[in-house]
Automatic annotation (TrEMBL):
Originating organism: Linum tenue
PANTHER family associated with the record: ZINC FINGER BED DOMAIN-CONTAINING PROTEIN 4, ZINC FINGER BED DOMAIN-CONTAINING PROTEIN RICESLEEPER 2-LIKE
Keyword annotations from UniProtKB, A to Z: Metal-binding, Transcription, Transcription regulation, Zinc, Zinc-finger
Location of the BED-type domain: 57-117
Pfam families per record: zf-BED
Protein name (Swiss-Prot/TrEMBL): BED-type domain-containing protein
Compositionally biased residues, Low complexity: 1-36
Length: 246
């Protein structure tokens, strides 16, 4: 009798069934499976299925206006101006890309006749902001001068992110290849050489020649520079570097 009373007073099977009903663990586990955020808490970008690819050895100037992307299993060329996707495989060539640039309305908006703000450097580090026109020839010459004066590597112009940086500043500027930049530098050298020879030839006074020699400690190489000095017809002292040997 005592055992029956204890069983009635403590109906464990009924409590377990009630607990199973009020706490449906199998259903919670199924909810966790159908909720991928619980398994992968990292945020994802919706629609971000484009992967930007390295241009590698692509040297055509048309790639200044396109980026190569991988969209799914396809390789596409994406226009920097209108964002249109075109065939980007290497065997597709670049003729269709050039034809697109001719008809791209977004590119025509930023044509060379458009006035842009430019900065003219004046004395004491101040700058004067003026309206000017983009000149591709002048920009290419400035790039060559920068490489000469700072000793930059010629391969810098073929770096992907350097080309993208320049394209962002001025989409109309076609970044030259390494060989084109080298040719520009040699043309500049021949032009300067001819100009200096005319200046020295037109001088009626005497000319002094000096040599300077030094050794670069980091490269263990010796250098020699030959410089000419003279006073021109306006009594101004002029100096020109004639030769630079290593």
């Amino acid at each position: 009798m005592a055992q029956e009373a204890a069983a009635v007073a403590n109906p464990q099977p009924q409590n377990q069934q009630a607990a199973a009903v009020t706490n449906p663990q199998p259903q919670n586990q199924q909810a966790a499976v159908t909720n991928p955020e619980a398994q992968n808490p990292e945020p994802t970008l919706a629609g971000n299925d484009e992967e930007v690819l390295d241009l590698g050895n692509l040297k055509s100037d048309v790639w200044n206006h396109f980026i190569k992307i991988k969209k799914g299993e396809l390789i596409k060329a994406k226009c920097n101006h209108c964002k249109k996707l075109l065939a980007g495989e290497s065997n597709n060539g670049t003729s269709h890309l050039r034809n697109h640039l001719k008809s791209c309305m977004q590119r025509k908006i930023h044509d060379g006749k458009q006035k842009v703000l430019g900065a003219n450097f004046v004395t004491k580090g101040k700058r004067e902001i003026v309206a000017t026109q983009f000149n591709a020839a002048v920009s290419r010459q400035d790039l060559a001068v920068a490489v000469i004066m700072h000793g930059y590597s010629l391969s810098m112009v073929e770096h992907l992110y350097f080309r993208r940086f320049l394209s962002g500043l001025q989409p109309l500027f076609s970044v030259p290849t390494r060989n084109t930049l080298k040719s520009d530098i040699f043309k500049m050298y021949e032009s300067e050489k001819s100009r200096i020879m005319k200046l020295i030839g037109g001088n009626k006074g005497r000319v002094a020649i000096t040599t300077d020699m030094w050794t670069a400690t980091n490269q263990k190489k010796g250098y020699m520079a030959v410089t000419t000095h003279y006073v021109d017809n306006s009594w101004i002292l002029r100096s020109h570097l004639l030769r630079y040997d290593m």
